[in-house]
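Re: the multi-chain job from yesterday

Posting the exact lines I submitted so nobody has to dig through the queue logs.
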Amino acid sequence: MTEDRTVEDLLRTLAPQVLGLLVRRHGQFDRCEDAVQEALLAAATQWPGQGVPDNPRAWLLTVATRRLTDEWRSESARRDREVAVALREPAYVGVAPPADAEPAVADADDTLTLLFLCCHPALTGSAQVALTLRAVGGLSTAQIARAHLVPEATMSQRIRRAKQRIEAAGARFTMPEPAERDERLRSVLRVLYLIFNEGYTASSGPDLHRAELTGEAIRLARILRGLLPDDGEVAGLLALMLLTDAHRAARLGPDGELVPLAEQDRTRWDAAAIAEGIALITEALTWSPPGPYQLQAAIAAVHAEASTAAETDWRQIVALYRLLARIAPNPMITLNQSVAVAMVDGPRAGLALLTPLIADERTAGHHRLAAVRAHLLELAGDAEAAREAYLAAARGTTSLPEQRYLELKAGRLATQR
Amino acid sequence: MLLIWNRPGFTEELTEQDRTALFGEVDEIMKELTETGELVDGQALANPSQTLTVRQIDGSTEIVDGPFMESKEQFAGYLTVECDSPQRAAEIAARWPDVRYGGAMEVRPVMEQAGTEM
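And the result, structure tokens for all chains:
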């Protein structure tokens, strides 16, 4: 078991390095990716029994290259001319350092380039997520499909199409230009956060496979942080994930019901993850201009530092939200901000902040708005309006645990009358 | 989930050409959704005359022939798709040929086991 775990970790670390090298040498991202997946599969079946080879990276590279050339050779019988094109070394290979010269630097750059490629703007969000998990995360299509609760055939087509789109968009295996780099990095961060949330919102009961996604997102964020140690937002995202994931054991009750932050048993929070997250965000804020992920991590850190919900430094949280709303205005941020404002200035002040959202068609019918309004109306003592808002929120959600929670809150207000 | 509602047997009234075109369109959409990886699942249902409805009448459970709803349109089948937005799901539904022949597509989100921290 431990042995298998080590092999799997090793394979997932090597996967992006081997893929990067292959694509840099031969181009043809989709074929190289298939070849690497086959090599990973071969290793996963052989290594646990026969032992890990002395140079596992070279082993994988050899097997994957053999698969590629086999494919080209069998094709050459049919289509000689196309093979000549396929085997032609892309012009940029000559510019890149030889694979063995500076392996550490080349591997690092390759992993980053891969991440940027998988988060290509020509792809939809769900395709970016799937491709990142496979090409950079080294997860198999079956694992990704299980985590997303869709059939393997569905996921396999989604990944195939994503690879074809990247080829069609003419994406080269090079770093984007500096002007585009920053924008691409924002996409990478967004995709990692999507992966994290897909795992985190479902990290319960029968959906253990989805819980693995949080671990994978954190692992990838750590790799990214190793590659870009000078980016404050990368540090911020990693800190935010760690501080959020620290709640995992406390966020669900015995029957799988959601336990809100204020009612969670804080002794069950993961102290090591919190310590790491707080250290990370505290340090990042000293040298980097604060971005949205850093500010959200800072808010999570303030929550984590309080030993009870009542002792939370709400004033500091309000100040952080004010900053966040200024640099990254977003209705969801206003929602959370209103709760913090209510804690400092009273529920009516929080409700006032929500007024523009009720008129905004993007948010008017959103169940989260109704849920927050319900909470603030309850604090304000308006039980009837609160009950109606809870029921409206319960009708609006597509989450069963949320629906149960909201109906429970509405039911309790009804019995109080 | 895309729920397909149509008038049972409406295809019997079409010309052979129209009928072939309709099934071709359905195949085309299914193929496209498979290729994009958006199709999760889908089934067509048998004619409503094959339906049994179970309900309680005066405290006892009765099993009766026929569908639950006595409307002209009947629930005929469904597709489960996973797309990036509800708008995209509606776009797929709008292309379903039954709509042109007086049918309707109902687009409903599926409840999930997951939830956000509140």
